[in-house]
Amino acid sequence: MGAPAPRATSAHYDRGVPDCLFCGIAAGQVPATIVVDGKRTVAFRDVNPQAPTHVLVVPRDHVPDVAALAVAGGGLLDELVGTAREVAAAEGIEATGYRIVFNTGRDGGQTVGHVHAHVLGGRPMTWPPG
Ligand code: AMP
């Protein structure tokens, strides 16, 4: 009898990149408060909200950042923004306005390497963002 097959741990996801937090959320293996559960995108509440509405929108598939998402094509970037609009409608901030932010890379303040749109609203946003 050979060695037992390695067991999947909660940090290893069927479709995603092992140990990627947002792959884990998209796979339903890391808890999150889901706002929109789409076919190719998922929206969930940020754990450290910076506004009354602060929701993150991610593709289910692992893509590192928004530039890579644009290069990948296939309409997924459009869908991500479409889901952000759905979130705004569901949160009642479509008419008052909202901000969509893609932090990209180190100096852009990106801390999770799975592309995510921040959808922020429910209060007036300031500019410049700091
Ligand atoms: P960024 O700094 O642009 O990469 O954004 C990452 C965001 O993920 C931050 O706003 C964090 O508060 C948020 N975040 C980190 N861990 C979780 C989690 N487990 N569930 C929801 N949001 C998270």
Features:
single chain, 130 residues, alpha+beta, HIT family, subunit A, five-stranded antiparallel sheet, binds adenosine monophosphate
Structural description of this entry:
The chain has 130 residues and is α+β, with helices and mostly antiparallel strands. The chain has helices spanning 21-26, 66-72, 76-91; strands at 34-37, 41-45, 53-59, 98-101, 117-121. Residues 21, 32, 44, 46-48, 56, 103, 109-112 line the site of adenosine monophosphate.
Structural class: alpha+beta
Helix amount, in percent?
10-25%
Bound molecules: adenosine monophosphate
Number of structurally distinct domains: 1
Tell me the CATH architecture. 2-Layer Sandwich
Low-confidence segments? 1-11
Q: H/E series, N to C?
A: HEEEHHEE
Radius of gyration: 16 Å
Average pLDDT, rounded to a whole number, is 91
- State the end-to-end distance: 60 Å
| Discrete helix count | 3
| Beta-strand share of residues | 15-25%
Largest sheet, described in full? 5 strands, antiparallel
Beta strand count: 5
Overall shape: globular
For the record, what is the CATH homologous superfamily label? HIT-like
CATH topology: HIT family, subunit A
Main β-sheet, spatial strand arrangement: 1-2-3-5-4
